[in-house]
Amino acid sequence: MKFATLILAATCLIYSVDAAGKIVDLTNFHDKHYQMPIELEVGDRFEIKIRENPTTGYKWLQLDQELEKHGLQDVIVLSESRYKSDDNPRGASGVGGTRFLEFTALKPGLGDLHLIMARSWELETILDITEELDSYVSKLIPVRVSK
């Protein structure tokens, strides 16, 4: 019973709901594949929180061709991407923070949301070189949208 309670508590920390919609907190999630599907209805929004340090040039990106490849083209759309820097009382350079990616469910469907961490100016080269982006730092998040 204690084990089941621990798993439930851990799940609640990663996937919660607030007034704005569902929040998937990946700030301390280090696995590539997120196992729990994000369950949505058409019109719902969800937000992904994930650690990032854009001063390195790398940032979390969602690519349209990956939505198509993983079955989510026209099912969800990235509606907002914003970044919040960590507190930096000493004013140091290169401090990381959190990327917030907000998606909206447009129509019923099922697939995997694939996020990659890359430098935007290298994307064309990356896509030309490899068919599979799994070799790059990435996250795969299952999404299911119902009516």
UniProtKB/TrEMBL annotation:
Keyword Signal applies: yes
Signal peptide segment: 1-19
Top-level taxon of the source organism: Eukaryota
InterPro entries: Chagasin-like_sf, Cys_protease_inhibitor_I42, Prot_inh_I42_chagasin
Sample GO molecular function, one term: cysteine-type endopeptidase inhibitor activity
Domain Proteinase inhibitor I42 chagasin: residue ranges: 40-125
Record's keyword terms, sorted: Protease inhibitor, Signal, Thiol protease inhibitor
PANTHER family recorded: AMOEBIASIN-1, INHIBITOR OF CYSTEINE PEPTIDASE
Name this protein carries in UniProt: Proteinase inhibitor I42 chagasin domain-containing protein
Taxonomic source organism: Stylonychia lemnae
Primary gene name: Contig4011.g4295
